[in-house]
Amino acid sequence: MGIGLLRRRRSRSASAGASGFAASLPAGAGAYRCEVVDPMGQPMGGAEITVTALDSHRVIARGTTDPYGLFVATLPPGSYSVMATAEGLTPARKNVDITAGVALPPERIALLPARQLELPSPGTWLFDPPHTAIRFIAKHVGMAHVHGRFTRFDGGIRIAPDMADSQVSVRIDASSINTGNKTRDNHLRSADFLDVERYPYIDFTSTRFVYHGGQKWTLHGTLTMHGTSRSVGLDTTYLGTVNGGYGQELRCAALAKTELHREDFTLNWRSMLARGIAVVGPTVQLELDVQAMYRTPDTPTPPE
Asked: Do 134 and 266 belong to one domain?
C-alpha cells in the first residue's frame, strides 16, 4: 500500500514536472532530455551530446551533461539524431522525434567500454600525402572564419616498442599555404606573416606521447615557425590500422589538433592592425588528419 502510494506520488511529481517544463517552452518548440550513465550505471557528468537534424544533417545543439549526467535541449519540431560521447567509451546514438509543446521524459543513454584498438607495429611509418591533410582555421578580424591548408609537406612516425617513446616529425613547406584566395595567400607568404623567403619551413618534432585512456593521447613536441620554436601539445585521437590502399599496404591513422597563439611566433597582429592591415585573429586552430604507411622495402610510393 505504502509503496503503491509512493509510486503514484512520484508519477504525479514527474508528470507535474514535465507539464511545468512544457509550459515554459518557447512557442512552437519542444524539448529533449536525457540522462547519460557510465558502464556501471552511474550518472556521467561531462559527456558530450550532439543533436543533428536528420533532414539537413546540420548540428542543431551541442553541449555536455551536468554533474548528474543530465542534458536538456529546446528544439524545433522534427526528427533528430542524438549522439553521446565520452573519452574511453563507445559513442551511443539514438533517434528522436520532437513535437511542438511537448517536453519528452528523460531518456537513459548508457555508454559502454570502447573497443581497444591495436597500436601500430614498431617501426617506421611514412605520411601518405594524398590521404593526409594539414588544415587550419583562423577568425578574420571582424568577419567570418578563414579556412586553409598546407599542400606540401612530408613526415613520419617512428613507433617504439613502448609507445610513449615513439617520435613524430613533420616538415611543412610554408609557401604551400592555400586559403582559396590568391591575393590573401600571397600576403600570408609575405614578411607581414610567414615570411617564407626567410623561413621556408614549418617544423614539428615530438618529444613524448602521453596516454589519456581509450584512443586519446597528447603528443608533446616543439613547433618551429617564423624562426621561433615553442613547446606545443597536440590532442590526438588514434583511429586504428588497416590493410588497404595502393598495394594493400599496412597503414595507420590519427587526428591531432591544437591551438596556436600567433604572437608566440612573433607574428604581431596588434601592430598589423595599427598599420591598417586586415588580418586574422590572435589564435589559429591547427589540425593534422594523418594516414601513414608502414615502411618496408616493398612499400609502394604514393602518387604525387
From this structure: yes
Are residues 127 and 66 part of one domain? no
Pick from 230, 228, 291: nearest CA to 259: 230
Together in a domain, 128 and 108: no
The pLDDT tens digits for 186-243 are 988 988 788 999 999 999 999 999 988 778 899 999 999 988 899 999 999 898 888 7
Q: Could you tell me which residues come within 8 angstroms of residue 50 by beta carbon, excluding any fewer than 6 positions away?
A: 59, 61, 62, 82, 83, 85
pLDDT digits (tens, 9 = 90+) for 282-293: 778 999 999 999
CATH number at residue 279: 2.40.128.110
pTM of the complete model beyond 0.70:
no
- Indicate the number of domains in the chain: 2
DSSP symbols for 67-112: TTSEEEEEE-SEEEEEEEE-TTEE-EEEEEEE-TT-BPPPEEEE-E
In a domain, 258, yes or no: yes
Give exposure, 129-158, as e/b (b: 16+ Cβ within 10 Å). beebbbebebeeeeeeebebbbeebebbbe
Reported as a single tens digit per residue, the pLDDT across 36-56 is 999 889 999 999 999 999 998
